[in-house]
Design brief:
The protein is mainly α. The chain has helices at residues 2-25, 32-43, 58-78, 94-114, 120-156, and strands at residues 81-84, 87-90. Strand 1 (81-84) and strand 2 form a beta hairpin.
Length: 162
């Protein structure tokens, strides 16, 4: 139970960090690199599955990916871009903060309930899969929307004739 409490506290701090990063991100132009890199960096966490204590069953993997994908829909719906000063910015969304907090509460409650029946290592593996299953579709959707706006910016730029 101690591991569950410690990791839940860690999740709260990570959520606060994500909110701060998101608020700061809205003040600077977005780039493809800023959209693509977080899932790549997070993918290194898959190395935890080298250790048997973190391995999950195929059914647990399917469950975690499915829940992650469902959560990603909420993030996709609240992540919109806008063009300002010939740059692409992430729009500020109050709903994003509430959704992030709601997802955190759901995650902590699920962890408390599931920790009674699932080993803490397996649970850690499942929650990593859930998070990865959430961030990948979200970032893919963000990248697709970003490219559309980037193309719109490119199309709107007048071409010089020589």
């Amino acid at each position: 139970m101690d591991y569950v409490v410690i990791t839940s506290i860690g999740a709260v701090f990570m959520a606060i960090f994500a909110m701060i990063v998101r608020m700061k991100a809205a003040k600077k132009p977005v780039s493809a690199k800023k959209i693509i890199l977080p899932p790549i960096f997070m993918s290194t966490g898959a190395l935890m599955f080298i250790f048997p204590m973190f391995r999950v069953t195929p059914l647990e993997m399917i469950e975690a990916v499915t829940v992650g994908f469902l959560f990603s829909i909420l993030l996709i719906k609240t992540s919109k871009f806008e063009i300002r000063d010939n740059d692409i910015y992430l729009k500020r969304s109050r709903a994003f903060i509430y959704i992030l907090i709601s997802l955190l509460v759901i995650r902590v409650l699920a962890k408390l309930v599931l920790s009674a029946t699932i080993d803490v290592g397996q649970l850690g593996g499942m929650f990593w899969i859930l998070a990865f299953g959430m961030i990948v579709p979200w970032r893919i959707a963000m990248y697709v929307n970003y490219r559309k706006l980037q193309q719109q910016l490119f199309d709107d730029v007048p071409t010089k004739t020589v």
